[in-house]
Design brief:
Elements lengths: L1 E2 L3 E14 L9 E17 L4 H5 L18 E17 L12 E20 L2 E20 L2 E16 L18 E14 L2
Parallel strand pairs: 1-8
Antiparallel strand pairs: 2-3, 3-4, 4-5, 5-6, 6-7, 7-8
Length: about 200
């Protein structure tokens, strides 16, 4: 079974470095290199759209009468991984002798293997699942000296398996036999970057 939950909102934080190939820029404008992300973490709030009742058996907390704030948090995903891919950088005003020469535009693509957690809390029932996710990013950014702004599309998928419920005394490993669900993800990121 494959589902594609829709994002409501989210945030992410990235730490990385761009390694440009040595030598003169192509036509004094273009340079190519490798973009590395040493850490890429994202938290997203999803629209439920009935995913809880469709996909989970309610094997977690399901007493239905708890007043805990954890009982109705909705659907969330958390992904954390690393990324690598090519980058092309253009310096359109490199020939001028003023501050405009520090303006750069970059296009990049990443493959981003990630660990993902899918968390659902609704109507007093709580479930969580995990997966290895194959994620991809394609985007661009404008930078001037140390600050930049960018936009990128992120997509991918993973086969999520419910986490083992250690509170279930009748079955010591209920999660091992639970069905996996393939989930697809797609989001748009708008960000501010800082270069040190």
């Amino acid at each position: 079974m494959s589902t594609s939950p829709k994002n409501k909102f989210g945030f992410h934080i990235v730490n990385g470095h761009t390694y440009m190939f040595p030598g003169k820029p192509i036509c004094n404008l273009f340079k190519v290199g490798i973009d590395l992300r040493f850490a890429d973490a994202e938290v997203s709030k999803l629209k439920n759209d009935g995913l809880f009742s469709d996909n989970w058996s309610g094997s977690g907390d399901s007493n239905g009468d708890s007043d805990s704030f954890l009982d109705d948090l909705g659907c969330w995903t958390i992904t954390a991984g690393v990324g690598i891919g090519p980058v092309v950088t253009v310096t359109p005003f490199s020939f001028v002798n003023n501050s405009a020469r520090f303006l750069k535009a970059s296009l990049y693509f990443h493959y981003r293997p990630s660990a993902g957690v899918y968390f659902v809390s609704q109507d007093g029932e709580t479930d969580a699942s995990w997966a290895f996710c194959n994620m991809f990013d394609f985007g661009g950014r404008l930078t001037w000296k140390m600050i930049g702004v960018g936009i990128e599309g992120s997509w991918g998928n993973g086969k999520f398996k419910p986490l083992i419920d250690l509170t279930d005394e009748e079955d010591s490993n209920p999660g091992l036999t639970a069905e996996k669900y393939k989930r697809k993800f797609a989001s748009t990121r708008i960000y501010v970057s800082f270069t040190f």
